[in-house]
Design goal:
Blueprint (H helix, E strand, L loop, with lengths): L4 E4 L2 H6 L3 H10 L7 E4 L6 H10 L30 H11 L12 H13 L4
Parallel strand pairs: 1-2
């Protein structure tokens, strides 16, 4: 295979889901050039991910943005437990409270993002 770039996003999540053997098979078992560039991205970088990075990457460099395990001083975090059926309504309630700021919403799958976009557009959010 003529792979020049190997990118692994959400590496921690992939390991949590048990994909390490599959990742190793792709990197070690496939006919991938040793000259490839590998990039691994993860919100957290636990020891298991660091070991995987050392196995896959030559001249391994770890870059951290911000302080691990904490939010920046200009970020407000809140946690609210909500039933699935109430999630969109709760998000819209929070969106209506924001004046001149940004909200970042994480969803698990693309189809969840598409459904949320549809719901927000129906609620007349840009």
């Amino acid at each position: 295979a003529n792979v020049q770039f190997f990118v692994l996003d959400e590496a921690d999540r992939m390991l949590d889901l048990g994909f390490e053997p599959d990742i190793r098979h792709i990197v070690d078992g496939m006919d991938m050039s040793k000259e490839r560039q590998c990039f691994m991205f993860s919100a957290t970088f636990p020891k298991q991910i660091q070991r995987l990075a050392m196995d896959f990457l030559d001249d391994y460099i770890f870059v951290a943005v911000g302080r691990g395990g904490s939010a920046g001083s200009n970020i407000t975090q809140s946690l609210e437990y909500v039933e699935n059926r109430d999630k969109t309504a709760t998000l819209i309630r929070h969106l209506n409270k924001v004046e001149g700021g940004l909200i970042l919403v994480f969803v698990e799958r693309k189809r969840d993002a598409d459904a949320l976009e549809y719901d927000l557009m129906n609620a007349q959010f840009p």
